[in-house]
Amino acid sequence: MKEDLFIPLVCSRCGKELLGGDNSIIFFCLECKIGFIMENYPESLPLKIYKKNFNCEGELIYFPFYKIEGDFSFFSEDSHKTNSYSNLKKLGALFYPAFINLRSLYSEDLTLKYALQPYSFVEDNYPKEAVIIDVLVAPKNLEKIAKLFYLSYFDRAADVTNVEVDFTLKTVDFALIPFEKKGDEYRELILGTILKGFSI
Q: Rounded to whole angstroms, what are the CA distances from 88 to 84, 85, 150, 153, 182?
């Protein structure tokens, strides 16, 4: 029987207190900008904190995402499909939600919006007055998730039946993206998208 091990809630690098809620599976050190995967402590991933591009008039909340980068390739004997895919706008990093929400469609839409606007992301420091939503989604199967996302994106241009695809994962980072909560309404502060009906 495996013994339960005591995991200190301090950074193994700088000794400062880690930040994370009661249900979070990831705890962050904002000083070192890393996130610790608590079930495999001290395993960690780099942390990127992004600057808001819009003023926040409500409560500032940071939502956690996995920033996935890699190389996607495809092959099809159908030249029409190949041309259709080639004409699609190239995607940047994929920001896959590390939180659970009640409207997953919004998350998928944000992932695409962010991938189409990679130059909208500027790194920043974490403001002390902000709140971080608990990380509830483990960093697993991200290579497969990215591959399926690309398939979905390509399917907008042409049917992906009998198309060979591959995604080679290069890097995964934790990403904290600023949102504004005003009443029952959420607005993400990278592109300014208002998420009506969004809840967590």
A: 7, 5, 11, 9, 35
Cα separation, 166 vs 180, whole angstroms = 36
Q: Which of 9-18, 173-182, 190-199: highest mean pLDDT?
A: 173-182
Q: How far is CA 160 from each of CA 69, 70, 76, 171, rounded to the nearest angstrom?
A: 22, 20, 9, 26
Range scoring the smallest mean pLDDT among 6-15, 129-138, 143-152: 6-15
- Strand-strand pairing, 44-49 and 34-37: antiparallel
Tens-digit pLDDT profile for residues 80-99: 878 887 888 889 999 999 98
- pTM score, whole prediction: 0.89
Residues 17-55: b if buried by 16+ CB within 10 A, e if exposed: ebbbeeebbbbbbbebbbbbbbeeeeebbebbbbebeee
